[in-house]
Structure formats: structure tokens, C-alpha cells
């Protein structure tokens, strides 16, 4: 409390001195920890009081959060908006910082600065009349994509359109800042990322947009992940950063977050940076055509087009809202990103405990696991005085992008581990689930439509079918209920009264205008531009939907953009009973859409009813009408392709209600579904005999998965569940493991069909199959019914679609079937003959979905099994049959890895591990951008710009830490017989990344990687004499090195040539506290002739190296790996007292084992009196070390004449205790025990 009071006094004095604009005073509130901010607003003159309550003064400021509120009964939206803006940035800050945040937010909301003078004598004209409308302030339908920027100036509002670059006049301060910007960007380049200097940023101005990128191929992602995330290894992940005035990291962490709030956009690009036009469009919500084009390119091409990722919306918002706050928390508390996010989340709800404030500096996120080592870097843990804000931002983005499946998609907290998800999902927190499904915080709907349009079509169609009342499926005698289980909640949808009971008003239709004869002064807010209405012929249930273009009080008319018609399906049959709350009229019984003539009087229903306040039947009816207005998904995808950076709401033919409903439909499906065959089908009307024709043109930009299609199912369109809903998939995995532990199963799962009415599949896809309701009886007991025979299940899939087919579907299907994976324990089923009846809800998962279009499909003729595809072995006697009653084969590549006993290999496409990163381009894309950083304005005179590296010839490429830094490694066959990359690394022992490593070791090894890469890239192979394949380093603590190109006159080189050995393979294992302890170095292959048989070269009988340099006694933290490799090579080349020789190949089959190498290493150290590292066991992979009793028994090395003090006798204990301190000490010079006879 003392700290709080002191800071309060300081803040009060600063306010008195006028240091916070708009703030008149800070007063003490009536509660402990409460302060009152008195804010004066000049236009119009007014005073307001904002209360700030410190929720935990005992932990102020680090673990405290301020709660903001106002005492005003009915505060204007600008005030509540300002409080909302500031609330995210008053965590862990001082009173002064909090007050500055609140004042800045209020000033931004209340005092916008104009960019264009407005004539004070004129007022903007508005044809409509504003009235007190309870819905006016609650309108969430406003869309920035539809914003008219020309109106800004007329109302005195600041323009958000990007301004062209202004002439730059450097000052001393700006020159210093430019220098710092280039220093920060240089650190980005040195960390291995590519720079994108856009327009004049970092050249002459300190504000603007710039990019940081890394090639996808450098991230070590699996093929499955790249497929699920719609990434290609030749594309770039691009982080765009926009700053109004560049702020250094040091300033950012001490200033209020609202004053240093940069904007971020994460996406992908074919080039290392987007064009100026694309970069500005990524941040600007205005019309794309209004944006300035890139002066250099004129128009955008596909290479510099900036595209959203599937999680761009989530990640952009997270970085905009939380990056600054989390960076400040990390800087002040020395924790990780995960810990900072966890602490800030807890502080925001007041649950932060005092004991949770301490962090172990050694507690580092395990980013080593299977990822490219560029992601191991953490700039905030480096002991640098000046940190690079852009580098920290890029590392933050990479943390939450590459590891996105480990974090909640909404709160970004760590998820429970139970299976390897393909796509990110949300945690079980109800708020996260609600925001994910209902508020657009889930996957990017635009991305889903562009990549998998038919999947979106499928989801809309299934939802549409589930909205048909059950009486249509089973007859008028059934109770009127909707098959859909969960309707959207909290979407704040505004819809029309589609029951038709109470039209708002009537008007005359004249072409595309509504005309009134009576007074319309009260309709100004209802008929304002961009509002949506529905209207119909009186007495019918068929609605037209329109967007208001203009409303004119003078002419009593409104111009409309009529975009869609809904309700045709209600024109069905006379037997249809009325829906509660809806009318029944003779017009609904007609089979033709009513025609509307000019001058006809129509009922008008504005989109103004609150969807959440309707009954379930009314909600279902409203959803049907809204979905009727949606264009075909392929048409939406085509529009998005032409407007790649616009949101769905920018499409004028889609109402805000339809866009929100479509977002909910896609987001509420948490399964990962792909269409197996992406060929585009010709669109045909629902009726008629025309067939659907499969063309060669692909639908969407996703991958074609023809190799995953199940043959023998002609006439059915196939979809594959790459992953079910995360919670269901997790329960299935657990159940599978439990059953597998209790019994031996050659094939852990079996496959069977399930058929159900079309109206049920919306819920099945989301929550899985259950038996909560009875549709066809339970003759064989309770449970979900499956059949191994397609024909049996197909009989249950008919019906349930009467009028329930979405009229705008490109697929236009009427039946749906699933092929399900079931745990192979039939004896524990309720029944397994003639059907499988599974009562355990977690024992089955849908893997394929088959839909049958109303019209037959032509154009798919290849039903033969491809010879190059591996299929899943199925349980004998339990194989499922297809349409022709023949056994079907399931591609192994289509099944989740963790479920099958064989690998998921498939020749199309090739599955690759994360470590097999590849890159086929040269590393000169950003050379000009980097040159700006090094040379601009001559401020970096000591730095040389990077040279471009051409890619010529068929040379081996190696990839380094600098974003797959491409260098050419040419091997002159006249000088060496060594071939880079020929070593089969899969035949060598590979260690898992250690869990014990500290950050100091990670940084040190990372620096060594960079150094040796630089040396290897610049030195000819025959001169260098060693080679490391950096593409294959999946564990930074274990390197494989090849020594080669020895002097041809050496006995070792002669033996290598005779035995056709081109390299000596070494393994280097680094300790957890490197560089303070030496690495463990050993020979893996070939085997060397022991000293006792005439060999030498300092290689022990177990493959370890007898060199004091590699022990604690001779090691120095100043030693580099390059020098270690040089000395090891010199030791192998030494002929004194005997040269190194190889064992005869017949006697040296196999490699040196790690155990014998460790034993020989300890034995050699003991003979020479060298100290062995205390943590050797962890360094060598946790193997059991030999137990020796060391006694002071002298020996002499014949090579040097040095005394060997301790000797080794029989083992005494199961653990190794080496105590060298009581033995005589000897010279610690770095010499090798040349030809030691005891080894």
C-alpha cells in the first residue's frame, strides 16, 4: 500500500504540472486503492469522473489490475468505448501509467483531430431524420468494408485512409531514431529472418509498414500440418508491422501501452514481402480500389499478394491486444510468454496468487521439440542493452503460430495434451467456446471458403436440413420440433419477422425503390443506408431481401439493392401444418414464386428483431430465410479471390445476419474436414434429369486428395475427417489406449457404416453419434448402430430432407453416410451380429462422410486401386463392404497416425518428418532490403551489405539458421571423393531434445551453429575437411560431423580408399551447461585399429577420443566448435607415435556403441588424471555409466612420458563416483594421450 500511495502522490503532481492531456485532477476514492480521474472535455465543455479501483494493492504494481468504471447513469458510447480500450492496458502498471492510458483513450475517442477543414457555416446534409431508437446504439451490423471515406472530412473525422509519403526533413532526433531502427532490423536479419522494407520506412521516415518473414520450408512442419494449414514450403510466413511512430523496446516497456500500440498482421506470401498496395490493404478496412498502388509494380501479382492464414484473425487480435502487455510483463518478471499470458489472464480476473509471482529462469518453453532451431532463440533472454522490438514481435508470432495446436485459439493458454491436433482449437472454458463459435474468434471464414468451398457448402446444407421441423420428416402427427440441437446464441443477430405476423409498414414497389404516400419522418434510422429489409407480397411467405442504398425524405422513397429471395420451400403441400407463430395462407400452397409488379403494395419487415428473444421455432424459420439469401459458396469464393484482403461482410449481396450465421456454422464445426476429390462439379437445378459432371477444374485452392478416395463408391462425393472435434478425439484416443492395454489386438480398430436422415447430420458432425433419441427402434439393444455392409446402413439414410435441401448448394445432395472407426472389441459391444451396437459413446469416430447428389455424377471413371498407394490392413473377417458388396480398401494416409499399426506412408503425397526441411530457392530475395539497413544515409558505414548468392549448377544445398540460408557446396571430384549429403543419417543413433537444457546453452550452441555454417559456406570442401548437414539437425544438442578429404599419403586415407569409406563420422553431444563444460565427442564409424594392434590417431578402443581438450581439466569456455573440429582432425592425422589405421572391414562391421565410447572415455581420463564432467550421464543421453573404483596406481604414456596417476580396478557400486581431487595434479596443457597403451 505504501508503494501505491507514493505513486498516487507522484501522479497527482504530474497532473498538476499538466503532463497528462485532458486530465484535470486525480482524487482519492472512498475505497482502499480507489482513485478518481477527473477529465475535462472541451467540445462540448463537460467534466466526467472515471473511477479506477486497484484490485490488489498488496501486489501493486506487478500483480495488480485496475478496474475502470464511470458513475454516469447513461454514459455515451465514446466514454464506454474509451474505458473498454484502456482496460486491456491497466494491468501491472503504476497509477501514473494507468491515468495516462485512460486519458489517452478518452482523448482519442472525444477529440479526433481533423485532417481537412470543414466550413463552419455549412452542415452535412442527411435526408433521414434521427430518432430515439433503442436499437440505434446497439447496431453491430456496421461494417468497415462498406465505409465511405469521403464522408470523413464532412463530419470532421480523421481519415483512416493511408497517407502518401511526405517530404522528409531529417533532424538530429529523427536521425538517431533511424539509426536505431536499422540496428533493430539488423538484429532481425542476423537472427535469420528476411526483411521487407516497404516504401520509405527506415530509409527516410520512422513510421510506416515493414515486414519480417521466414520461408515455410524452414519451419520443419509436417506434411499433414502444412496440408491442414494450407501452406506450401515455398511460401513465406509474413509478419506485417505498422507503427505510427517507431518506439524502441526500452521505451515500449515503460510507457503506457496505448501510446506504443503497434498493429500486426500475420499472413503468407509467395515473395518475402508483399507490395505496398497489399501491405496497406492488410491494415486498411476501406475499399481495396481506393488504396494506392505500388509505384514500382503498378499492380499486384501473385508473388507479392498477402493472403490470410486460417488463424490470422485470432493471431492478429492477440498480438494487437496483448503483445505490448505481455512484453512488459516478461521484461519485468523474467518469465516466458506462456507464464506471462497465464499471469495476465489471472490478474484480469483477480485470481493471481502471491506465490505465483516467482519464476524459475531455467523454466524455458520446450521449443526444441521437432522444430527448426531458428525458433529456439528468445531475444528477451539475451543480455543486451538494446533489444529489437521487431525481433521480439516476430519471435512472439512464431511461438504462437508454429505451436498453435498447443494453445487455445481464443485465450492462447496452454491446452491439455492428449493427442496431436492438426488444427488449433479452443479450451473448455465456456467463454472461449462462446467467443469461438459465436463472435468470430474462430478460424477465418474467408480462408475456409477459399480453400475448402465444398466443405463449407456441406456444412451449410447440413445445417439447413436440420432446421426443417420434424413433422416434415415423419408426418403431421409428430410433434413439431427442430432436429438441430443447439442454435446460435449471443450473435446479436438482427433479423426480420419472417413469421409475417406483424409487418412494420407497407409501401409501394416501383422497380428497385420503395415509395410511401404517408409521412415517413419516423423511418430515418430504420431505412438508413446499409440497413437491410425484407418485403413480400401481401399474404405470401416468399420474401425478397434488400439492402438500403438511399433514403430520401423529400421524395418519400428509398433506393434498394434487391439481392435474394427466400421462402420458396414453404410453397410445399396442403398437408403441411402451420408452424407455431407463423401464418398459413393459400399462397403458400402454390408451387410458383409470387410475382411482384410495379406499383404493388408490399409488407416491409426491417432487420430489427433480436434473434435471441425468439422462440426456437421462430429462430429456425429465421435461419432458413437467412440461409436462403446466401449466394453459392463457389460464387463467394470467386469474390474473395478478387478481394483477398476483404472480409465476408464486404460482399454487398450478403447481409450482416447471413455473414454472422455463416461464421457460426463454420466455427461451430470443430472437426477438420477435407474434401477428398476437389474436382468442380457442374451446377444443375435441384429438379430435372441433368447429371452433375466432374470437371478437371478444381474447387478452391486446397490440395487435391484423390489418393485418399475410397474406390468402389461411384456416385458419391467423399469427405474425410482428418480429425474429429478435439474433445471427442481426445476421449476416443484415451478409450483406445485403455482397451489396447487390456488385450492384444493386431488391428486396434475396425470400420463400419452408419446411415441417418439428412436432418441429423448437422449435430452428428459436431458432437458425434449417440443414441439419445429413437428414430428406427432398438431391436438389438441400446447403442449406436453400425453395419459393415453399406447396403444395410444406406436404408437408414433416406428421408428427412423434404424441403430441407439448401437451394443454393453446389453439391445439392439428399443422402449422407459415414464410415466410422470403432475400437476393435466386438465382445464388449451390446451386440455385434447382425449389426454392431456400440453403447460406449467414446468408442467410435467418423472418418469419412459420403454424400449422394440428387442428380447422378458423371466424369469420375477411375475406380481401380492405384498401385502406388498403401492401404490400411483391416481386421480379418470384419472388413467393410461397399456399394457392390465388395470389400473396400482404406488408404493408410487418410487415417490418424496414432490409431494404426503401420506407418502412414503413401507415395502420394510423401509424408515427411518435421526435421526434413527443404528449400529450393536462393537466398537473395531480401538483399536490397538488407542493404537499406546496412547502408541507408551512411549511418552504418562499418557494415558491409550482404552479397547476392546465385544458384548455378547442380550443387548440394545446405540450409542454415538464417531462414534456410542457401549456399552452394560444390565438391571438386579431382580434389576429394567426399559427397555431401550421401550419409544415411537414419542409420545413426538420434537423441531426443533434452528437457534439462538452459537458455544459456541454447544461445551458445545457436551461436556455434551460425559460426560453423558461415565457415562451411565460404570454404571449399577439400580445404575445410569437415561437413555438417544442418538440414538434419533436429536436436540442437546432438550434431553429426563428417571428417573427410585427408592427405592421400596418410595411412588413414589409404585405408579409407581401400575400404571405400569417404568420411569418418563423428557424433558431438553437448552438455546442458555448454560452454562451461566440454561436449562429448566420439567416432561412430568406421572402427579404428586399436593401439595395441598398431593403430593410433588418439581414437580409443571404444571410439572415444583421448584428448584433454575434451575433458573438464582441459576445456575452456572460450573454445569454439570450429577449433575442436580442427584439433580432432589434427589428432587423427598425427603419425606420432603411430598413425591412425582402420580395422579390416570384415572385423569392423557395425558402429561404435555409445556405451563403450563412454567407458573408454572415462578410462582414458582416469589414466591421465583428467577430470570427467559431472553431468556426463545426462550429456550422453541418460545411459547407465560404468562404475569404477579409482586408485592411485601410476602408469606412463609411451607417447609423452607423462605419469598416469589413477588406475581402475573392479566395480564396487552401481553408480559412478569420480574423485580426482585427492590424486596428484599434473600439467593441464591441452595435449592428447598419444598412443596410450592402456586404451
TrEMBL record:
Q: Which GO MF terms does the UniProt record name?
A: NAD+ poly-ADP-ribosyltransferase activity; nucleotidyltransferase activity
Instruction: Give one Pfam family.
Output: PARP
UBC core domain spans which residues? Answer: 1000-1174
**Residue span of region Disordered:** 113-143, 897-924
InterPro entries according to UniProt: ARTD_PARP, Poly(ADP-ribose)pol_cat_dom, UBC, UBQ-conjugating_enzyme/RWD
- Which PANTHER family does this chain map to? POLY ADP-RIBOSE POLYMERASE FAMILY, MEMBER PARP
Q: What is this protein called?
A: Ubiquitin-conjugating enzyme E2 Q2
Amino acid at each position: 500500500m505504501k508503494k501505491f500511495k507514493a505513486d498516487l502522490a507522484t501522479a497527482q503532481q504530474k497532473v498538476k504540472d499538466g503532463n497528462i492531456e485532458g486530465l484535470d485532477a486525480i482524487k482519492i476514492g472512498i475505497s482502499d486503492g480507489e482513485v478518481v480521474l477527473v477529465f475535462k472535455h472541451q467540445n462540448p465543455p463537460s467534466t466526467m469522473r472515471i473511477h479506477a479501483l486497484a484490485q490488489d494493492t498488496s501486489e501493486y504494481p506487478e500483480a495488480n489490475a485496475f478496474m475502470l468504471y464511470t458513475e454516469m447513469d447513461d454514459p455515451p458510447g465514446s466514454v464506454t468505448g474509451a474505458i473498454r480500450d484502456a482496460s486491456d492496458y491497466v494491468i501491472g502498471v503504476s497509477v501514473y501509467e494507468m491515468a495516462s492510458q485512460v486519458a489517452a483513450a478518452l482523448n482519442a475517442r472525444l477529440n479526433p483531430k481533423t485532417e481537412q477543414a470543414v466550413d463552419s457555416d455549412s452542415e452535412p446534409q442527411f435526408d433521414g431524420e434521427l430518432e430515439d431508437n433503442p436499437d440505434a446504439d446497439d447496431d453491430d451490423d456496421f461494417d468497415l468494408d462498406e465505409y465511405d471515406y469521403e464522408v470523413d472530412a464532412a463530419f470532421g473525422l480523421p481519415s483512416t485512409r493511408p497517407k502518401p509519403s511526405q517530404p522528409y526533413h531529417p533532424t538530429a532526433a529523427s536521425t538517431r531514431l533511424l539509426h536505431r531502427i536499422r540496428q533493430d532490423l539488423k538484429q532481425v536479419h542476423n537472427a535469420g529472418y528476411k526483411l521487407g522494407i516497404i516504401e520509405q520506412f527506415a530509409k527516410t521516415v520512422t513510421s510506416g509498414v515493414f515486414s519480417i518473414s521466414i520461408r515455410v520450408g524452414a519451419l520443419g512442419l509436417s506434411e499433414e500440418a502444412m496440408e491442414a494449414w494450407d501452406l506450401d514450403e515455398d511460401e513465406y510466413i509474413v509478419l506485417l508491422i505498422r507503427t505510427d511512430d517507431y518506439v524502441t523496446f526500452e521505451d515500449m516497456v515503460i510507457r503506457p501501452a496505448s501510446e506504443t500500440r503497434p498493429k500486426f498482421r500475420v499472413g503468407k506470401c509467395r515473395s518475402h514481402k508483399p507490395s505496398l498496395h497489399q501491405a496497406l490493404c492488410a491494415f486498411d478496412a476501406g475499399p481495396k480500389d481506393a488504396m494506392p498502388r505500388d509505384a514500382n509494380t503498378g499492380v499486384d501479382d501473385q508473388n507479392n499478394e498477402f493472403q490470410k492464414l486460417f488463424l490470422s484473425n485470432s493471431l492478429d487480435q492477440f498480438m494487437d491486444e496483448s503483445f505490448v502487455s505481455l512484453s512488459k510483463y516478461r521484461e519485468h518478471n523474467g518469465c516466458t510468454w506462456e507464464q506471462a499470458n497465464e499471469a495476465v489472464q489471472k490478474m484480469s480476473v483477480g485470481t493471481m496468487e502471491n506465490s505465483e509471482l516467482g519464476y524459475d529462469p531455467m523454466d524455458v518453453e520446450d521449443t526444441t521439440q521437432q522444430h527448426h532451431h531458428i525458433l529456439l532463440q528468445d531475444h528477451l533472454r539475451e543480455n543486451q542493452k538494446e533489444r529489437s522490438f521487431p525481433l521480439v514481435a516476430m519471435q512472439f508470432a512464431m511461438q504462437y503460430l508454429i505451436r498453435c495446436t498447443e494453445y487455445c485459439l481464443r485465450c492462447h493458454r496452454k491446452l491439455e495434451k492428449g493427442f496431436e491436433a492438426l488444427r488449433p482449437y479452443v479450451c473448455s472454458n465456456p467463454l472461449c467456446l462462446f467467443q469461438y463459435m459465436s463472435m468470430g474468434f474462430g478460424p477465418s471464414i474467408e480462408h475456409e471458403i477459399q480453400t475448402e468451398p465444398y466443405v463449407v457448402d456441406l456444412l451449410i446444407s447440413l445445417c439447413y436440413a436440420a432446421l426443417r421441423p420434424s413433422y416434415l420428416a415423419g408426418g403431421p402427427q409428430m410433434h413439431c420440433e427442430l432436429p438441430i440441437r443447439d442454435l446460435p446464441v449471443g450473435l446479436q443477430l438482427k433479423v426480420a419477422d419472417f413469421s409475417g405476423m406483424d409487418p412494420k409498414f407497407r409501401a409501394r414497389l416501383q422497380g428497385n425503390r420503395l415509395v410511401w404516400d404517408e409521412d415517413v419522418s419516423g423511418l430515418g434510422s430504420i431505412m438508413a443506408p446499409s440497413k437491410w429489409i425484407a418485403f413480400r407480397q401481401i399474404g405470401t411467405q416468399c420474401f425478397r431481401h434488400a439492402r438500403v442504398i438511399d433514403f430520401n425524405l423529400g421524395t418519400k422513397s428509398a433506393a434498394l439493392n434487391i439481392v435474394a429471395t427466400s421462402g420458396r420451400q414453404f410453397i410445399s403441400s396442403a398437408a403441411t401444418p402451420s408452424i407455431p407463430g407463423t401464418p398459413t395462407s393459400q399462397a403458400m400452397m402454390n408451387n410458383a414464386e409470387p410475382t411482384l409488379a410495379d406499383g404493388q403494395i408490399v409488407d416491409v419487415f426491417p432487420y430489427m428483431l433480436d434473434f435471441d428473444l425468439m422462440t426456437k421455432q421462430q429462430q429456425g424459420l429465421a435461419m432458413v430465410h437467412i440461409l436462403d439469401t446466401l449466394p453459392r459458396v463457389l460464387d463467394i469464393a470467386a469474390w474473395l479471390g478478387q478481394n483477398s484482403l476483404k472480409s465476408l461482410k464486404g460482399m454487398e449481396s450478403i447481409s450482416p445476419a447471413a455473414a454472422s450465421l455463416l461464421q457460426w456454422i463454420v466455427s461451430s464445426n470443430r472437426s477438420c474436414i477435407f474434401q477428398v476429390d476437389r474436382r468442380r462439379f457442374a451446377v444443375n437445378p435441384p429438379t430435372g434429369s441433368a447429371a452433375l459432371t466432374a470437371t478437371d477444374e478444381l474447387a478452391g485452392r486446397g490440395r487435391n486428395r484423390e489418393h485418399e478416395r475410397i474406390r468402389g463408391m461411384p456416385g458419391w462425393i467423399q469427405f474425410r475427417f482428418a480429425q474429429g472435434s478435439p474433445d471427442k478425439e481426445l476421449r476416443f484416443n484415451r478409450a483406445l489406449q485403455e482397451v489396447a492395454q487390456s488385450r492384444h489386438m493386431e488391428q486396434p480398430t475396425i470400420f463400419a457404416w452408419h446411415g441417418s436422415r439428412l436432418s441429423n447430420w448437422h449435430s452428428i458432425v459436431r458432437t458425434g453419434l449417440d443414441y439419445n433419441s429413437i428414430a428406427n427402434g432398438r431391436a438389438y439393444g441400446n447403442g449406436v448402430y453400425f453395419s459393415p455392409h453399406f447396403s444395410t446402413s444406406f436404408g437408414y439414410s433416406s428421408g428427412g430432407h423434404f424441403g430441407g435441401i439448401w437451394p443454393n448448394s453446389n453439391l445439392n445432395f439428399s443422402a449422407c453416410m459415414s464410415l466410422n472407426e470403432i475400437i476393435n472389441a466386438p465382445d464388449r459391444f451390446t451386440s455385434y451380429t447382425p449389426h454392431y451396437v456400440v453403447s460406449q459413446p467414446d468408442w467410435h469416430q467418423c472418418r469419412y462422410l459420403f454424400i449422394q447428389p440428387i442428380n447422378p455424377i458423371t466424369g469420375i471413371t477411375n475406380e481401380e486401386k492405384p498401385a502406388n498407394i498403401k492401404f490400411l490392413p483391416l481386421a480379418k473377417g470384419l472388413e467393410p463392404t461397399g456399394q457392390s458388396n465388395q470389400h473396400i480398401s482404406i488408404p493408410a494416409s487418410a487415417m490418424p497416425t496414432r490409431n494404426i499399426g503401420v506407418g502412414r506412408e503413401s507415395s502420394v503425397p510423401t509424408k515427411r518428418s518435421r526435421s526434413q526441411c527443404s528449400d529450393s530457392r536462393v537466398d537473395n530475395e531480401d538483399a536490397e532490403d538488407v542493404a537499406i539497413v546496412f547502408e541507408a544515409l551512411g549511418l552504418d558505414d562499418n557494415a558491409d551489405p550482404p552479397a547476392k548468392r546465385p544458384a548455378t549448377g547442380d550443387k548440394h544445398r545446405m540450409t542454415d539458421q538464417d531462414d534456410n540460408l542457401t549456399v552452394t557446396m560444390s565438391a571438386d571430384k579431382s580434389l576429394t571423393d567426399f559427397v555431401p549429403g550421401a550419409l544415411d543419417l537414419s542409420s545413426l543413433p538420434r537423441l531426443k531434445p533434452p528437457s534439462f537444457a538452459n537458455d544459456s546453452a541454447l544461445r551458445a550452441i545457436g551461436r556455434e551453429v551460425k559460426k560453423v555454417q558461415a565457415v562451411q559456406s565460404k570454404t571449399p570442401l577439400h580445404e575445410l575437411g569437415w561437413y555438417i548437414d544442418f538440414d538434419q539437425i533436429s536436436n540442437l544438442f546432438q550434431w553429426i560431423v563428417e571428417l573427410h578429404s585427408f592427405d592421400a599419403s596418410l595411412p588413414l586415407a589409404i585405408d579409407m580408399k581401400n575400404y571405400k569409406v569417404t568420411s569418418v563420422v563423428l557424433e558431438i553431444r553437448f552438455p546442458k551447461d555448454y560452454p562451461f563444460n566440454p561436449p562429448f565427442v566420439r567416432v561412430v564409424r568406421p572402427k579404428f585399429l586399436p593401439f595395441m594392434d598398431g593403430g593410433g590417431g588418439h581414437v580409443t578402443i571404444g571410439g572415444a577420443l583421448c584428448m584433454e581438450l575434451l575433458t573438464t581439466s582441459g576445456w575452456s569456455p572460450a573454445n569454439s566448435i570450429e577449433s575442436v573440429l580442427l584439433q580432432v582432425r589434427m589428432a587423427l592425422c598425427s603419425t606420432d607415435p603411430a598413425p591412425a589405421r582402420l580395422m579390416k572391414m570384415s572385423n569392423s562391421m557395425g558402429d561404435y556403441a555409445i556405451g563403450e565410447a563412454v567407458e573408454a572415455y572415462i578410462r582414458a581420463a582416469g589414466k591421465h588424471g583428467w577430470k570427467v564432467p559431472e553431468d556426463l550421464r545426462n550429456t550422453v543421453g541418460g545411459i547407465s555409466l560404468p562404475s569404477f573404483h579409482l586408485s592411485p596406481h601410476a602408469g606412463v604414456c609411451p607417447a609423452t612420458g607423462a605419469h598416469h596417476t589413477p588406475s581402475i580396478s573392479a566395480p564396487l557400486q552401481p553408480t559412478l563416483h569420480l574423485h580426482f581431487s585427492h590424486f596428484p595434479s599434473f600439467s593441464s596443457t591441452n595435449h592428447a594421450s598419444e598412443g596410450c597403451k592402456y586404451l
